[in-house]
């Protein structure tokens, strides 16, 4: 039987709501997370300093401090929010990309930074160059 190359993007995505803090400062939501807060076009980013919780809450575009969500990829299965300034302001590490399973609490998607999260690597085509 011939060998075949394993490609990371063949891995099934989780059906649980998950949020990833990317190294460049974006917050990415999987489909389950996006749908859990009502598939919004805009969100407000919140932070609970005492409990080290990030909250992502649905908002209208007219809401002060709202961030737009954009879809990425061919099927836009991942939604991204620019969070670099937010993460810097609250000194939230982003030296490695990490994913957390999120819960919905008070109409907000919440991730607990006291949990270590799962280190993730990108699915970019650069990672697969030379797979001849």
The number of distinct β-strands equals: 11
Task: Indicate the low-confidence ranges by residue numbers.
Answer: 124-132
Structural Rg: 16 Å
Q: What is the beta-strand fraction? A: 25-35%
Name the overall outline: globular
How is the biggest beta sheet arranged?
6 strands, antiparallel
- Average per-residue pLDDT, rounded, comes to 87
Number of domains: 1
> What structural category characterises the helix and strand content?
mainly beta
Helix content: under 10%
Topology pattern, helix = H, strand = E = EEHEEEEEHEEEE
Distance between the termini: 18 Å
Number of helices: 2
- Strand line-up across the major sheet: 6-7-2-1-8-11
